[in-house]
Design brief:
This protein is α/β, with parallel strands linked by helices. It starts with a strand and ends with a helix. Bound molecules: 3-keto-decanoyl-COA and 1,4-dihydronicotinamide adenine dinucleotide. Keywords: Fatty acid metabolism, Isomerase, Lipid metabolism, Lyase, Multifunctional enzyme, NAD, Oxidoreductase, Peroxisome.
Length: about 725
């Protein structure tokens, strides 16, 4: 709703729709009523629009996009109504003015912002464009380069930058509403023509055509298969080529194309999934709504290798004092140098005027080899080698040294949290915090609770994720947790496809064309093939512990591919050794080139094992890799390891480079249709009966059998039917 009041000559309209004042139909209606009332009242000389609870508006209701009553047309009409008002209208922007919220402010004749406010047109991130004439007004106000940047990236800009761009007229540190009323009183009687953006020409550039063609190339490159940035570009270009009314018509056409695209649906789902995934529950009944986090005022990181150095950097950036510990002085010095380099780079990236990183102060960041230095920290994150015996030894030590309330976290990528916790006297305080590499960049934090982990420990880890500006997703304990467990069958299928006749570059191309930043073989080379090799040795799948006489391509009654082991046995660990599934220019090089050595290894391998190579088409590559991953996702849901498909999707988008405009693997399955996913898995498992990962999971079969229900209903079938699964 919008509330109407008077401040002598100024009518005050307050947008009210908690928590973020989205522009529901009712809000828009009340805003329109308020404007009419102000217009009709001769004692009102000006109007001020602000938002309730220190927030202007977060724009349209994302949950309402699929509703038949969605108010796009009325929002654009309302913005025009504001602009055409004969009395000056001033926007008082506190907190946020985003999307439709900013478009309302652009309809106003003046804008005053609080210094802490942020503004943006994030529609592009939802697969849309600012469809209430924002693509036509913004370039007229701040010029084409700045408008294009805001509209095609969706970034939120701080008030100070908005002032520099001319997006707002005034920035205040105190009461924004009072400042806006003051401005409204001051401008009463002044001509409004020059303040109406629709009447202004778009500011000229020396060579607009050249600028636009360069910008288009940049936008396309950044879009990575997403449609919205390109259409946003087209709408802004229309502003430079047409009168306002024609530009608005073009904007509407482009908006409708996006609105009906599957990408917009996927991106809106992804936005809501991220919020849904914050609401964690455990099968034991613990939940986000009742658990209280404990404060984390200091932390320690053990192990300053690939992961530890990124984790330290993240903590320092979040202003949490850190003790960084290594096994000896040599490792410590290497780790210290690496951490300092990362922090120097981060400090350089920080905005001018932002708080600086205080990492040269030993009270904020201390390096040590002495476990006693961990005595007083609130939380420890262990990131040593992936070795159960070593991890248990460290947790046993921590349990003796750390203060009673300290949270003990492990960054293991797959090991059993309960077994690690069993080495301590306080398993309720042991939890998995699985960061992704590089840990100071990747947004995902998989949070794994064990059998004894307390709700407080879970809530504290979730709170930590927020402090680190990461997305924390709470999941149960199983080998590989959610992300890596779903990744295993995906990578495994990719390797089976090589055995059967494909090549790494062919498989990678299909998955990169689908939208992954890198395909499974380039990813394995980047992560290091030795990591998986050590893990398989630990599981007794390869190495000296495999009983003599075991067939090369069989393990535990199922097909096994020793190809990755063969590569490791030849010293090919991926990028770090300059050779893996590809060859690189040097050890540590990044440019992957197909390797004739590998092609002849594959030919030789097929000969040895009597495999007749066949041509494998793109559809089979895509489906076998993706559907096996999705199939594992259904098994995870059925086992209660994750509370819903949204959790799996958020993990994949933020940790594994799944293209966001395809919504995550489970959402993707829902768009393909579960009966089709099931039929294809049946087909492939019949063709390759002993290949693991292709036998459809019981939960997938169930959902297909009950008629392919929408994704939001999946879990209800599980609770009703779990006893039969
Ligand atoms: C025919 C076409 C159909 C009509 C199309 C009309 C065209 C338009 O008019 C275009 C638009 O405006 S599209 C919307 C543009 N606005 C956005 O993208 C803002 C999205 N929100 C944010 O960035 C953060 O939530 C924000 C920065 C606002 C706050 O962040 P926080 O971290 O503080 O809090 P969150 O946990 O993210 O959010 C709090 C609760 O608010 C919900 N919410 C936020 N923005 C929403 C939005 N725009 N629509 C619906 N719900 C929204 C959010 O889901 C969360 O709710 P709960 O999960 O229930 O707690
Ligand atoms: N590398 C990756 O992409 C990811 C790794 N992980 C997990 O993170 C953990 C660490 O992995 P990386 O950083 O890749 O390993 P790494 O081999 O790069 O670093 C491990 C560090 O631990 C140190 N260390 C070993 N024993 C120690 C001890 N007793 N006390 C103190 N420090 C000790 C080593 O000196 C080394 O610097 C593993 O559990 C791994 O599975 C998790 C996510 C991703």
């Amino acid at each position: 709703m919008a509330q109407y009041a008077r401040s002598p000559a100024v009518a005050v309209i307050r947008l009210r729709n908690p928590p973020v004042n989205t522009l529901s139909f009712a809000v828009l209606q009340a805003l329109e009523d308020g404007l009419e009332k102000a217009d009709a009242d001769p004692s009102v000389k000006a109007v001020m629009i602000c938002g309730e609870n220190g927030k202007f508006s977060a724009g349209a209701d994302i949950r309402g996009f699929s509703s038949p009553n969605r108010p796009v047309k009325s929002l654009a009409a309302l913005v025009s109504l504001i602009e055409s008002s004969k009395k000056p209208v001033v926007a008082a922007i506190e907190g946020i003015a985003l999307g439709g919220g900013l478009e309302v402010a652009l309809g106003c004749h003046y804008r005053v912002a609080h210094v802490k406010a942020r503004m943006g047109l994030p529609e592009v991130t939802l697969g849309l464009l600012p469809g209430a004439e924002g693509t036509q007004r913004l370039p007229r106000l701040i010029g084409v380069p700045a408008a294009l940047d805001m509209i095609t990236t969706g970034k939120h800009i701080p008030a100070t930058e908005a002032l520099k761009l001319g997006l707002v007229d005034e920035v205040v540190e105190e009461n924004t509403v009072e400042a806006a009323i003051r401005l409204a009183n001051k401008v009463i009687g002044q001509p409004l023509g020059p303040r109406r953006l629709s009447l202004k020409p778009v500011p000229k550039l020396p060579d607009m055509e050249a600028f636009l063609s360069q910008a288009r190339v940049r936008v396309k490159k950044q879009a990575q298969g997403c449609l919205a940035p390109e259409l946003c570009f087209q709408a802004v270009r229309a502003a430079t080529q047409m009168p306002f009314a024609d530009g608005v018509r073009r904007e509407r056409e482009l908006f409708m194309v996006l609105l009906s695209s599957g990408q917009a649906r996927a991106l809106q789902y992804a936005f809501l999934a991220e919020r849904a995934a914050q609401k964690w529950t455990t099968p034991g009944g613990a939940s986000w709504s009742s658990a209280t986090p404990q404060p984390v005022r200091s932390a320690a990181v053990i192990g300053l290798g690939t992961m530890g150095r990124g984790i330290v950097t993240s903590l320092v950036k979040a202003n949490i004092p850190v003790v960084a510990l290594e096994q000896d002085l040599e490792y410590l010095n290497t780790g210290r140098k690496a951490v300092m380099l990362l922090l120097e780079r981060e400090a350089m990236k920080m905005e001018v005027g932002a708080q600086t990183l205080d990492f040269h102060n030993p009270a904020r960041l201390q390096f040590t080899v002495d476990f006693d230095s961990l005595r007083d920290v609130d939380l420890v994150i262990e990131a040593v080698f992936e070795n159960m015996a070593l991890k248990k030894e460290i947790f046993h030590k921590l349990s003796r040294i750390c203060k009673p309330g300290a949270l003990l976290c492990t960054n293991t990528s797959a090991l059993n949290i309960d077994e690690i916790a069993s080495a301590t006297s306080r398993p309720q305080q042991v939890i998995g915090t699985h960061f992704f590499s590089p840990a100071h960049v990747m947004r995902l934090l998989e949070i794994i609770y064990g059998r004894h982990t307390s709700p407080t420990a879970i809530a504290t880890a979730v709170q930590l994720a927020k402090a680190l500006k990461k997305v924390g997703v709470v999941v149960g304990n199983c080998f590989g947790f959610v992300g890596n467990r779903m990744m295993f069958p995906y990578v495994q299928q990719a390797v089976f496809l090589l055995e059967e006749g494909s090549r790494p570059e062919a498989v990678d191309r299909v998955l990169e064309d689908f939208g992954f930043k890198i395909g499974p073989f380039r990813m394995s080379d980047l992560a290091g093939l030795d990591v998986g090799w050590r893990s398989r040795q630990g599981q007794g799948l390869t190495g000296p512990s495999v009983p003599a006489g075991t067939p090369a391509r069989q393990r535990q009654g199922q097909r096994y591919s020793p190809l990755p082991d063969l590569l490791c046995e030849s010293g090919r660990f991926g990028q770090k050794t300059g050779k893996g599934w590809y060859q690189y220019e040097k050890a540590g090089g990044r440019t992957a080139t197909p390797d004739p050595w590998l092609h002849s290894l594959l030919a030789q391998y097929r000969d040895t094992h009597g495999i007749e190579p066949r041509f494998i088409d793109q559809e089979e590559i895509l489906e076998r890799c993706l559907f096996s991953l999705i199939n594992e996702g259904f098994a995870i849901l059925a086992e209660g390891i994750a509370s819903g498909p949204e959790h799996l999707d958020v993990i994949y988008i933020n940790g594994y480079g799944w293209p966001k405009h395809k919504g995550g693997p489970m959402f993707y399955a829902s768009t393909v249709g579960l009966p089709r996913v099931l039929a294809k898995l049946h087909k492939y498992s019949e063709a390759h009966p002993d290949v693991p990962g292709l036998q459809p999971s019981a939960f997938l079969k169930k959902l297909a059998a009950v008629g392919n229900p929408p994704i939001k209903e999946w879990m209800s079938y599980l609770s009703q039917q779990s006893s039969r699964l």
